[in-house]
Design goal:
Layout: E1 3-9, H1 31-41, E2 47-51, H2 55-59, E3 69-72, H3 80-91, E4 99-104, H4 112-119, E5 130-135, E6 138-146, H5 147-156, H6 164-169, E7 173-176, H7 189-192
Parallel strand pairs: 1-2, 1-4, 2-3, 5-7
Antiparallel strand pairs: 4-6, 5-6
Helix pairs in contact: 3-5
């Protein structure tokens, strides 16, 4: 069973004042590099990073010690759906990948343990799996999407919404990760402090 990772990092980060793919954390580590390393540490391979706004600058922040495939969401301005669609398209080029873990670049307290928990499925179930982390009963990331769902999910995506409707309509399994982090995303400089 092969589980890949998809890190979505294409947006302009209007509330942040710059693309979140360019944010460097208080620890001096770029969020982009951290996100790739966390997916790698959790065993997700291959790892796909979706970039858009200021993509060339963001590519310079990718870690050199972890293999990454970059997908550019040319239509990133149309919202989250463009990034997710592009990530699934790139993942589909890897014939041996049974499922992908989807996560976002702006989750500074997401750790490998939460990714492993969400990705923990029996080998025979990976291609049909649909699982989502929950924190205090609230849905969040990461999300595991089995290969059987990639094409119908891509076809359902529109605007600035991700997989939420699809996950709900197809009975995604809730995976409690409350003991492993907050699940909060960081949208503004004020939230960084």
């Amino acid at each position: 069973m092969t589980i890949g990772g998809v890190l979505l990092a294409a947006g302009a980060g209007s509330r942040m004042g710059l693309p979140k793919a360019l944010v460097v954390g208080a620890d001096g580590q770029p969020w982009l590099a951290r996100g790739v390393r966390v997916l790698s540490e959790a065993g997700c391979e291959p790892t796909v990073v979706v970039l858009g706004a200021r993509a060339e600058e963001a590519e310079d922040l990718l870690p050199g010690d972890v293999p990454v495939t970059v997908g550019i969401a040319e239509d990133w301005q149309s919202g989250l759906s463009a990034s997710l669609r592009r990530g699934l398209e790139v993942a589909a080029t890897f014939d041996d990948v049974d499922a992908v873990v989807i996560t976002l670049v702006d989750l500074p307290d997401l750790g490998a343990d939460a990714i492993r928990r969400v990705a923990s499925v029996p080998p025979g179930d990976a291609r049909s799996a649909l699982r989502q982390a929950h924190y205090g009963g609230r849905p969040g990331h990461p999300v595991l999407i089995g290969r059987d769902h990639w094409l119908p999910l891509r076809r359902s995506l529109t605007g600035d919404s991700g997989a939420k409707k699809y996950l709900g309509a197809h009975g995604a399994e809730s995976v409690d990760c409350s003991d492993l982090g907050s699940g909060r995303d960081v949208d503004s400089p004020r939230e960084l402090r």
